[in-house]
TetR/AcrR family transcriptional regulator
Amino acid sequence: MARPESSAQDRQRMRERMIDAARRLYLDRGAEALSLRTLADALGISHTLPYRYFGNKQALLAQLRRDAVERFHAWVLERDPAGADPLTRLRALFDAYLGFARRHPPEYRLIFASDQPPPDRYPELLAARERMFDFAMDVVQDCIDAGLVQGDAREIAHAYWISLHGLMTLHVAHQLVHGCRFEQLAPALLERLLGPLGTSNAGRSRTRKAAKEQRR
């Protein structure tokens, strides 16, 4: 007797189980230890079943990266003081980026791993990345519209991102070993990125407050 085919809902539940288990394996043992076989073993299912959902390890990692990017974006949005002045929102954006890397280093490493396929190979992952960057670019554009900075929003957002990414990458790789800790460098970097915008007493107070909150 032929076995009845699973429903779309059953398949979705199995996919979600696999993604949850794969994330736990990654967080516990790292990307090198993650494979479709170890995933099957963790769930107690056939070794061939994960291939029906993801095809190969890179597709599974792309799904995990997409989910991590969406969690990163949600983290940033939750900390956006919508309706505040552009400079306050820009500072909040910087603080949120740095805060996510500090609180969730394994996921940050997963998102920006250097040994991954180009994001455009996985359109849903690329779309998640673009949504996050577009939000940052909108915050920068508000600063441009307010006359606080001059230039192209996309270029400026890239410049900010590159600078923040340098600090975050060194932090999650445990390479800040030359006498300055993340808690010292984060507010100093923000002041340098903001330049004249960050020279007000109110601006300095906000940066010091953000650094204290990150240490908690």
Q: What stands out?
A: The radius of gyration is 20 Å.
